[in-house]
Amino acid sequence: MQVKVRLSKSIVGPEExxxxxxxxxxxxxxxMSREVQAFExxxxxxxxxGREVTCVSAATAALHLALQACGIGPGDEVLVPxxxxxATFQAVTASGxxxxxxxxxxxTSWLDVExxxxxxxxxxxxxxxxxxxSGTGDIAAVRELARKHNLRVIEDAAHAFGCTYEGKPIxxxxxxxxxxxxxxxxxxxxxxxxxxxxxxxxxERIRDLRLLDVLKDTExxxxxxxxWEFDVVEQGWRYHMSDLFAAIGRVQLQRFEREFKxxxxxxxxxxxxxxxxxxxxxxxxxxxxxxxxxxxxxxIEDGRRDAVREALAxxxxxxxxxxxxxxxxxLYGGGEACLPVAEQLYREMLTLPLHPAxxxxxxxxxxxxxxxxxxxxxxPSHRGRRAVAVRA
Length: 392
Ligand SMILES: *Cc1c(COP(=O)(O)O)cnc(C)c1O
Description:
single chain, seven-stranded mixed sheet, three-stranded antiparallel sheet, binds pyridoxal-5'-phosphate
């Protein structure tokens, strides 16, 4: 079946192409230099509160460097909600530390802070709240728990670029905050990520570590110079951002407020009102407007998630599962631990298409199919397919 409605999509066009072309034709340099510097400055201005921004190759790299720069490594434990992209867990294992899977709350899929508190041991060094579906959750409770137990708070804000918490942009407050500019996120640079922190020592460490820990290489590159006589003090990584990607990201940042944000917010609000009154379908209780949704998951509580998914697929509508709980993955215990709330959500979750190019007509079609299946009305079989929504 051909895909008619995509789950997510990069919204890029002539402006991004012109920016990339400018770097290719005028600069002739794809490494890290003035475009990255400019993108970092513009991001810092957007986030405000005097925060420093360091761009890297991906949010996974951002999380990995944040952990390393905070001195977290082998023997240390890091609390992570089990429902997140595997990138969050992989970043922890990349640092040498051990991710400790925590429960999430049934209504928001956000970290269950009380469950996380019960998992603290003398080895616990950090907590990574994930802004799931752009919901900013109870960050205050996470910060309070961290303060009590002397933990670093590294926010996985891959879904939350452009969201606000208590009136301030995500990134403007807190310890260390990591963003993703991967293709489907709220803004994209092709691939990319950023770390925002108020801790100058962590910021400085990250700036070196992204360039193989070649000390002060960032400053030289921003002057379009290279470092030849340098020192390295610890294991670093090739995690810097390219000027080519930064040029694309700069255009996307300009388009965010006027195009992407209003469109994503309007579509999410529209989904929520179209789905209201469907008893079998639960939506996240999020305040769209102060948050800018990256994904739109729904929860189908009567065992028909797969039937809904199949019916949508039959009409060429892509859906997602955000996410398989990480404690079920072989590398992270293969289900040895039991996290019943997350496991129940895993059976119910279904992510509906959401991106700025989704039309209202497409959205109506998606909702009509969801409604038809959960209300148990048979879908007229056509093209030789059997009806998928007959009530058992
Ligand atoms: C996309 C995503 C990441 C990883 O982002 P990359 O930039 O692709 O490395 C990490 N965490 C979450 C929750 C994500 O959605």
